[in-house]
Write a structure and sequence with these properties.
The structure is a single chain. With 106 residues, the chain is mainly beta. Helix content is 0%, strand content 57%. Strands 1, 2, 3, 4, 5, 6 and 7 form a seven-stranded antiparallel β-sheet that branches. The chain is globular. It comes from Rhizobium rhizoryzae. Pfam families: Cupin_2. InterPro entries: Bacilysin_H2HPP_isomerase (IPR052535), Cupin_2 (IPR013096), KdgF (IPR025499), RmlC-like_jellyroll (IPR014710), RmlC_Cupin_sf (IPR011051).
Length: 106
């Protein structure tokens, strides 16, 4: 049995997104950031958790700034405005529930 391979997407300058696994209820996604790259402020109905695999990030969630280092994680409720700034090159592993169907149509 072979696992599906999902193509990389480039949602913002200096950001590479790759779906790692998914089903209708859950999606796991890797986001790689160059230093200084930003995930622009946005919101979506999905609950999101983010885990800092490497690097250093400043997250903005509902107007609050939160500094995250390797090993830190954060939950973002659905429909809450959020974004991040990469302070040191790194990778985030995000989980979304339900699946982000918009990520499947690169």
């Amino acid at each position: 049995m072979s696992l599906p391979v999902f193509p990389a997407a480039y949602p913002d300058p200096g950001v590479t997104r790759r779906v790692l696994s998914e089903n209708a209820e859950l999606m796991v996604v890797s986001f790689r950031f160059d230093q200084g790259a930003e995930g622009k402020l946005h919101s979506h109905p999905h609950v999101q958790s983010t885990y800092v695999a490497s690097g250093k990030f400043r997250f903005f969630r509902d107007g609050e700034a939160i500094l995250l280092n390797p090993g830190d994680s954060l939950v973002i409720p659905g429909n809450v405005e959020h974004g991040c700034q990469c302070l040191e090159q790194g990778e985030l592993i995000d989980c979304f529930t339900p699946r982000r169907d918009d990520f499947l149509s690169v």
